[in-house]
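INTERNAL AUDIT FORM
Audit reference: QA-55
Scope: verify that the stored structure record matches its stored sequence.
Auditor: D.O.
Record contents follow.
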Amino acid sequence: MYEYFIGQVTDIQTGYIVLEVNQIGYKLLVANPYAFETEQTTKIYIHQTISDSAHILYGFVDAAEKQLFELLIGVTGIGPKSALAILAASNHNGLVMAIRQEDSRYLTKFPGVGKKTAQQIIIDLKEKITKIDDSTLPPAETPVMTETELLPLGVKDDALLQDAVAALGALGFSRRDIDKVIPELTDFNADTTDAYLREGLRLLTRA
């Protein structure tokens, strides 16, 4: 079982990155591909799943994010895709506080998480989450997703925003919900896809 890889990111797509390690390119499914930069030596923590049909590698920016992912996929009703969508928001402290304070409403804002699953997350993780050191988690911010349907007019002229909208769809957010925040994202005027993605996640998960 892998703990982490150290290598160079050679490709960034809406749902994954490719990390080259010793001349081998590994496809890593990640929460926010745009949090990484190409051609830089990077340490990425790894979770591997093996089934009869596929070997899948998931990548994480640090050990704390990997730990949260492994806790989430241990909850009934939460698969890897839903876990990545929850972690796409870099506000992991928000997730931890929601579980500790039994705030199921916050959790249901994420794709694939209904009321029953939100309650299950709280029941299963409330005690376990107390073992996570808050100081290792990034401060409040927000996440990523993607979709292949036609883009709204306000997005077509901005390639960075197009990638962010696609990433939001990939995370599982509905086209209807994404379209609601497009006007605010268009006015946001970010200079990176990562910034658009984080702002999109903030808007989609706000109260």
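Auditor finding: record pair retrieved intact. The beta strands are 4-12, 16-21, 24-29, 41-50, 55-60.
Action required: none
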